Amino acid sequence: MAENFELLHTVSSPRDLKKLSPEELRRYCDELRRYIIDQCAVNPGHLASSLGAVELAAALHYVYDTPEDKIVWDVGHQTYAHKIITGRCEAFRTKRRLGGISGFPRMAESEYDAFGGGHASVSISAAFGMAKAAELRGERRKVVAVIGDGSMTGGLAFEGLNNAGASKRTDLLVILNDNHMAIDQATGALKNYLLKISTSVHYNRFKQRLWGLLSHTPRLLRLCQQAGNAVKQGVLNKSNLFESLNFRYFGPVDGHNLGELVRTLRAMHDIEGPKLLHVMTVKGKGYLPAEHDQSVWHAPGCFNPDTGERIAPKGGPARYQDVFGETLLELARLDARVVGVTPAMPSGCSMNILMREMPDRCFDVGIAEGHAVTFSAGLAAAGMVPFCNIYSTFMQRAYDNVIHDVAIQDLPVVMCLDRGGLVGEDGVTHHGVFDMAAFGAVPGLVIAAPMNEPELRDLMYTALRSGHPFMIRYPRGCGEGLPWRGEAFRELPVGRGRRLRDGSDVALVTVGTAGNAAARAAERAVEAGVSVAHYDLRFVKPLDEALLDEAGRRFRRVVTVEDGCLRGGVGEAVAAFFNAGGYDVRVRSLGIGDEWVEHGTPAQLQALCGYDEEAVLRALLAAAGK
Ligand SMILES: Cc1ncc(C[n+]2csc(CCOP(=O)(O)OP(=O)(O)O)c2C)c(N)n1
Ligand SMILES: CC(=O)[C@@H](O)[C@H](O)COP(=O)(O)O
Ligand SMILES: [Mg+2]
């Protein structure tokens, strides 16, 4: 698509936006949408959600006095228009790239990013905190939380509503951006409830007539809302959920009708106390391929903007998530106790494979990681073997659920942590780098990290047979290309690693898929005249002490490599083992240091952190005195 933008480059702040006439604002939104599509085609990101929030972002910056007023975007994956409006039009070309701007709001990146994001369901609590602080400090600023229907399913969002609803005076607007979608189809009772409110023909016809009759002054708007609620109670035969929590409920309004949005936001502007505006949007709005397959276009990768053809890498090894997904289906066929649990990531972790074949044996519980773990614990306590798959970074939300509800109770829940290690372009909020250190501290928990596809498959089988809490972590992306599909299952000895290569100068100790690049480095070190023995631990916990004893007795120099944080990580555990046993060994640990890792390709980030193939080679040569 040729770049032909008349208005796009005239806006470099919300101040410029406010100078546009309503008609120009509409045209500007069209250009915004086109620019987002063009850019995401060559530099991928979260396309569909951002397309759905173009008018919303424009209307908010048009009506509110940002950055004095604060807009908190939940998750932050829908903020591309917001970023472009707030002075990052050129920088948008660099989004999610090393050294470029983030794909999510970042407070350090812009004064307009009132709160950083990446994880879901945060916005109401954070915005309520800001609104409360403004009240305490006597500042008259407005605070708005924008939260999607998917993110509203998270417990934290309800905690925020519960708390904020009890505060009569605090000036907080929650905008519920409802597109009936999370990444996949929205799920749960809330989805049905929102659908009922937004599609009740009688209520909406009545509301539209009433709103049309009356001019939208705050006083009259409140009258509309009260009258609307009375009808809603009659029509929907129940009170409004948000009204019950003491939020004034407005809407639903069409989130792509700029005029209606601006009018409504202006009319609501001076109404005090907690209030919620229900906005209906279409995920992928304005780009037909995205509107038609909203799940795929959530984050589609590169594509041809003219044809909508996605440019997917062809061939190559299977993704780890697909090894998980297909193996889970096999295990479910093998054992009637096996069920799948996912907090709103069925396509992300490929549990949709089981979901398609055995819908009754698979549960998408909404964006609710804590609940997913405790629900799994309940299933396990009553005789099932749940495979609960949670991205490593999102599992951080369920730390106590793992400890209290699974580990202490010694329940056979298989916790599969996808996206372990550095994930790449999503950046600092999404790297799965704390899991081994954090969960390594939990007594009795088995933590395994496969090095390749057949090992992931065998570990899932081993976990099914173990009868105890079992965690398996593996990375984003593709495997090593080893045969796995249809191979016979092998039960692996728990807590036992293996020696992959023998040598005499240096011991290399690795865990998980980081061992593959390390193995290549070892090969090159051997070619350079350094004899390396490579040990793959396979289990973060329990550590294979027999294997470490062999390494400790034979070598004075040990290099460890892990795709996780070094503080409390596997390298530290190995060094502690040698120290405690009085071995005469010097350990050098490679992994992620005590710092935040930003966005970039995984290869770039691994190199920066110092544990890619080159870095391991350097460490091996240095350990051998070369
Ligand atoms: C705690 C947490 N769990 C899961 C995710 C992954 N995730 C990102 S966006 C999303 C769906 C959000 O749905 P919604 O809020 O309705 O926004 P939409 O994508 O529909 O615009 C999910 C599940 C996340 N970011 N944070
Ligand atoms: C915004 C968000 O949290 C998800 O969309 C995440 O970016 C998905 O990551 P994957 O691309 O690794 O599935
Ligand atoms: Mg949604």
UniProtKB/TrEMBL annotation:
Q: Which BP terms in the Gene Ontology apply to this protein?
A: isopentenyl diphosphate biosynthetic process, methylerythritol 4-phosphate pathway; terpenoid biosynthetic process; thiamine biosynthetic process
Which catalysed reactions does the entry list for this protein?
Answer: D-glyceraldehyde 3-phosphate + pyruvate + H(+) = 1-deoxy-D-xylulose 5-phosphate + CO2
Known SMART domains for this protein? Transket_pyr
Record field: transmembrane:
none
Q: Which note does the record give on the cofactor? A: Binds 1 Mg(2+) ion per subunit. Binds 1 thiamine pyrophosphate per subunit.
Record-listed Mg(2+) binding positions: D149, N179
Q: Which Gene3D superfamilies match?
A: 3.40.50.920, 3.40.50.970
**Pathway(s) of this molecule:** Metabolic intermediate biosynthesis; 1-deoxy-D-xylulose 5-phosphate biosynthesis; 1-deoxy-D-xylulose 5-phosphate from D-glyceraldehyde 3-phosphate and pyruvate: step 1/1
What function is annotated for this protein? Catalyzes the acyloin condensation reaction between C atoms 2 and 3 of pyruvate and glyceraldehyde 3-phosphate to yield 1-deoxy-D-xylulose-5-phosphate (DXP).
Q: What is this protein called?
A: 1-deoxy-D-xylulose-5-phosphate synthase
Which gene underlies this protein?
dxs
